Amino acid sequence: VRPLVLATDGRAVEILDQARLPHEVARVRLESLEQVANAIRTMQVRGAPLIGITAAHGLALALRADPTDAGLEHATATLAATRPTAVNLRWALDRMTAAVRPVPAAERAALAMAEAGRMAEEEVAACRAIGDAGLAVLRALAASRPGRPLDVLTHCNAGWLATLEYGTALAPVYRAREVGVDVHVWVDETRPRGQGWLTAWELGQAGVPHTVVADTAAGWLFREGLVDVVLVGADRVARNGDVCNKVGTSLVALAAREAGVPFYAAAPASSVDWAAADGSAIPIEQRDATELTCIRGRGADGRMVQLRVAPPEVAVMNPAFDVTPAALLAGIVTERGVARASAGGLRTLFPERFAP
Amino acid sequence: VRPLVLATDGRAVEILDQARLPHEVARVRLESLEQVANAIRTMQVRGAPLIGITAAHGLALALRADPTDAGLEHATATLAATRPTAVNLRWALDRMTAAVRPVPAAERAALAMAEAGRMAEEEVAACRAIGDAGLAVLRALAASRPGRPLDVLTHCNAGWLATLEYGTALAPVYRAREVGVDVHVWVDETRPRGQGWLTAWELGQAGVPHTVVADTAAGWLFREGLVDVVLVGADRVARNGDVCNKVGTSLVALAAREAGVPFYAAAPASSVDWAAADGSAIPIEQRDATELTCIRGRGADGRMVQLRVAPPEVAVMNPAFDVTPAALLAGIVTERGVARASAGGLRTLFPERFAP
């Protein structure tokens, strides 16, 4: 199962509605540009790699309706405006545009769908490679702590729900499970949207032992010596190794450093913004106050309900991401191996991006 | 208004039910030892100083029913077992026991109620003095940042709801408001129980500008330079200045240090555990998983409802407190002034506690 598949009739994509997980496993069919843009905006699909792949498919669907240059421009502008932080969105749209613009309008839709499919398979391969690179890290740590499961802490959801298969931060965990390295995962709840419950659902499906904690618990966990390694994803990595990820990540990184625990971000090259000199160049999305004040879940009668935890007039600020400085990272796990979190480290693995 | 008052008939206390705030302002009458113990355990009353004062009144009520030595012992044991971390509970019970044990059983109840009342008034005076000591800190910071409100960040609720009047961390904020120093407060939501919504309600009632953020947002706030000073309360301060406070506090302290922002805990002497050499001696309460998975609030029809954000089988760990090492504190604001967070600092203000 993947969180996004092409419909069998080829005229739509079907997504797993992540706004309804873990309560309901519901697939939603998206046929139009507007439906795809709305699904990204409302986070029915989420996770930087999946946002990129979804946008690529959305562009292909849009070109079925209007393959002209004007149609192409309208579609890319609409999709690009959905979310500002994940650079995979821009990366996917740039790559799709480069592929389809040179060809006649009549051929664009089919070409676009093929290109989107190729990108999806490349992303899957990248996640699998990230899993192998991260597995080496976990193996080394497990060898130094024999006799008990390795305790991994993760923030937000960077599993297969956020990509297509394996995930980024969770790919090494799934690979560890596959090869018999015992792992237990501490899962941050990840307020305001609670993506930790998605991670718990994913890990539960895969039979990986895990425990959810409030985001506030990280200081206690580290002080008690209950965390061996931190693995998180990334929504955008700057050229110097600064990592922008779900809000709260930088606090975990500070606590990890204080405890001497290695902290890794895992991300494919599609999440690196080669034009961003450092984290300060990355726009931080501000989202609606209702993400904090309104909570959805299952009521006593089993039906889905929504409630307010605060009166509507309460002032709220809701940044969706933060930047973890490169200096706090032990490394960035990529599809080409583990890079030091620095321009030099990324250059070693991706020299073509640093060509003069 | 206070969160705890003696009933006019003298046979009960009336509390503001903090489990129902900010949705409902409801008073609850507590007449028996069991009712008082349950109110503390379920956090209908909460906040270290208020827990102490409530326990003192609970003991007085218990002695009305059974003033014998056995009754006294049963009551203190019952109340002491309600919550493990706030040292005010033990402090209050020790002081009450010392007062009533020497006198004949028939006189104990009246004496106990008088002593509990005295403790309440002393606690109010201590909070007011903490407010004045902290006000001097805020004034100095405001003077160095003229032309805009001083941005204070707080975690959990350490206002009058957690004490009786003024509060501890919020006492300097209320005093600043009284004397015309412009202050804006960033309020951490404080998962899992969301005491930030109590703080927002308190500040709103007092007309103090404030904005609620998810606990995960602190890293972003500090990095953006939006915080001038951190003020938090304390559930137990160790002799060396380590501060145990609501879970998540230590993460805020790390982020504050990283940003060069001063971090203060505010607490009366009744919150200092003079027998605890350092933070490792302080027991950390583990609370029920449902605090994370079940959320109460107001439904669309205006009625109070409860929902689950995760399936009941999800594994959860829920520590209620954490320890912030003394080295991360700029000082501890007490009723005798601002102490350096160290044994030497506390000794300077409380020499009688360090007598050989």
Could you explain how this protein is built, in words?
With 356 residues, the first copy, chain A, is α/β, with parallel strands linked by helices. Chain A contains eleven helices and 16 strands. Chain A has helices at 33-41, 48-65, 69-80, 87-100, 105-144, 171-179, 195-205, 218-223, 249-259, 290-293, 343-349, and strands at residues 4-6, 13-16, 27-30, 150-154, 183-188, 210-213, 229-232, 236-238, 243-246, 263-266, 272-273, 294-299, 304-308, 321-324, 331-334, 337-339. Chain A has a seven-stranded mixed beta sheet with strand order 6-5-4-7-10-15-16. In chain A, strands 11-8-9-14 form a four-stranded mixed beta sheet, covered by helices on one side. The N and C termini of chain A lie far apart (42 Å). Chains A and B meet through helix 7, strand 6, helix 8, helix 9 and strand 12 of A and helix 7, strand 6, helix 8, helix 9 and strand 12 of B.
Write the layout of secondary structure elements.
2 copies of one chain form a homodimer.
Chain A: E1 4-6, E2 13-16, E3 27-30, H1 33-41, H2 48-65, H3 69-80, H4 87-100, H5 105-144, E4 150-154, H6 171-179, E5 183-188, H7 195-205, E6 210-213, H8 218-223, E7 229-232, E8 236-238, E9 243-246, H9 249-259, E10 263-266, E11 272-273, H10 290-293, E12 294-299, E13 304-308, E14 321-324, E15 331-334, E16 337-339, H11 343-349
Parallel strand pairs in A: 4-5, 4-7, 5-6, 7-10, 8-11, 10-15
Antiparallel strand pairs in A: 1-2, 2-3, 8-9, 9-14, 12-13, 15-16
